[in-house]
Specification:
Elements (H helix, E strand, L loop, with lengths): L1 E3 L5 E3 L1 E4 L20 H10 L3 E5 H6 L11 E4 L1 H10 L7
Parallel strand pairs: 3-4, 4-5
Antiparallel strand pairs: 1-2
């Protein structure tokens, strides 16, 4: 999906959750006041046209592949992750 930056430039934002980050795609996160709530952040990305996918193998390995994810977060695979990486201009990892 394409988002528009303040300066009018279109950017495409894609987030791929890997390893333990797949837990970030689960709903009903309860974080203490003053801490980041990843669920709210991912919902904002999705609401603004970004794409969020979660590694299916990583989710299965952690026993959460059958659990309902945040609306808009889709299970995917390493093949699609690799294609995203090849197709993109920039990759951020943290």
């Amino acid at each position: 999906m394409t988002l528009q930056k303040e300066h009018g430039e279109n950017v495409e934002v894609k987030i791929f959750l890997l390893a333990d980050a797949v837990f970030c795609g689960l709903p009903n996160q309860n974080t203490p006041n003053g801490y980041y709530n990843i669920e709210r952040m991912l919902k904002a990305v999705i609401r603004n046209g970004g794409t969020v996918k979660s590694c299916g193998g990583c989710s299965e390995a952690r026993g959460i592949d059958k659990i309902q994810f945040i609306e808009g977060v889709e299970l995917s695979n390493m093949k699609e992750f690799a294609q995203w990486t090849v197709d993109c201009d920039k990759v951020l990892s943290f």
